Every structure is written in C-alpha cells, then in structure tokens.
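Hi support team,

I submitted a single chain yesterday and got back a structure, but I'm not sure I'm reading the token output correctly. Could someone confirm the output below corresponds to the sequence I sent? I've pasted both exactly as they appear in my results page.

Thanks,
R.
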Amino acid sequence: MLIRRRHRLKLSEQERDMMRAACRFNARLLDEVRPHVKEGTTTAELDTIIYEYTLEHGHIPACLDYPGEHSPYPKSCCTSVNDVICHGIPCDDALMPGDIVNVDLTTIVDGWHGDQSETFLIGEVSDQARNVTQCAFDSLHLAIDAISPGCAISEIGSAIVAEAKKYEFGVVEKYVGHGIGQRFHQLPNIPHVPSREAKRQRLEPGVCFTIEPMINVGTPHSKLDHQDGWTVRTADGELSAQFEHTLLMTEDGPEIMTLTEQGPQKGHQF
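Hi R., thanks for writing in. Yes, this is the structure output for that exact sequence:
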C-alpha cells in the first residue's frame, strides 16, 4: 500500500532522540522474543510474549487494532511463515523444522514508532529457504550502503534488484518501505525496485524511514487472503523472506536505529 498523506518529514534533534528511544526498545523487544522463535512454539505464543513485554514496559504495540481495509489488525505483531510475504496473523500453528518465519514488530514509545522485522530459520531448512533468507538480508544492507544524504530514493531499489537478480529471485513491488515517526506509515514511500518517482525524490537529513525488502523465490506477484483481509502470500506458493530496519538519514549518512544486540549483523551468513 502506498502512503499518500502528507506530514512533516524532517525531525529536530530532540525528535531524533525520541525516535532513537522507540527504536532501541523495539530492538530489545525482538531480542526478548528471539529465543522463543523455535520448533514447537506457536506464532500465537510469540505474539503473547510481545504483547505482555510491551505493556509491562508501558508502551503500545502499534500493530494491534491498526485499521485495515476490512477490519483492524487483531494481533500485536506479524508472523509470516514460508509463502507468506507479509502481514501474517499469529495463530495456534506450531513452527516446524524447515520453516522460515518473519517476525515483524512495531512499538509506540512516548508517541514515536520503532519498526523492524527479521526472518528466522527453524531447524534444518532447504538450500532454497537459506538462499532467499540470505538474499533478503544482504539486500537490506546493500541498500543501506547505497544511500547518502540527498541521494535519490531509487538507489535503494537499484541495490535490492541487483542482488536479487544474482539468485533469479523476485522483488515484491506492491508493498513498500515508508516514512515513520509519530505516524506508523507516512511519506516518503520507499519502493524496493527503482521507479521514476523514486528517482525524483531525495533522502534529506532528518528523514526517518524503513527499508524492508520482500524477496520471493519465484514471481514477485502476491495474493491477498480475502478471508482475513491481511495475510499476503506469494502468487505461486513459493517461499518469501524479509528483513527490515528503521533508519534516520543524518548529515553524515544513514543511521540504523533498530540494531539488535543478539541478532544477525551485516555480513552474517545463514
């Protein structure tokens, strides 16, 4: 979904610090749930951990009751398993060996949003599952490396597409990164493929945004589950993986605001 509402994009120094605090908590939350993302755990149990930890610290899970086209989102996080690209709803299905699952968290801390996601490998996985996860992870970091103050937003999509082509994987076009701050989703849109509009738009210092490439083993096309109104799957049933960070473009370059202490860092091999 493309974001079209206008909102002030450039943050003051004080506002940047508020965003840093929100993102620090969100990263800590992902590390809190990390040991539980394993074989036998249900995604509903992961959601309960996230919900309770967030409330215990006085914050708000941004996904819970987030308005949708047909109904509010019913859970505190998104858990997207195997062929689910994004917005998978936690349920009572247990994670199984060979699964890959993306856990997507957003927290509101004192009115500011921290947003990130990570794909986890459950037990022994196929080479294809490992490769699509590696591609999504490397694509995110290559996109971060490609940007600088005042650069065209299209640099992000160019870096992601170039990496996906090495594997002959598809890059999802329909769902994009976004500006973030006191609103969960705001301008600028951050497409993960180059576009004419993205070539015209610039990432100026003070802008907060997410990069969140969704990489499919097969076609980049998707299909929405009209029964729940949220779950997005690959059109061909092939695997999909995603990683996401919230970033601040500073005067010196991009600052990754959602780095975890325990998660994979740039250069990690899955």
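A quick pointer for reading it: Confidence is low (pLDDT under 50) at residues 1-6. Let us know if anything else looks off.

Best,
Support desk
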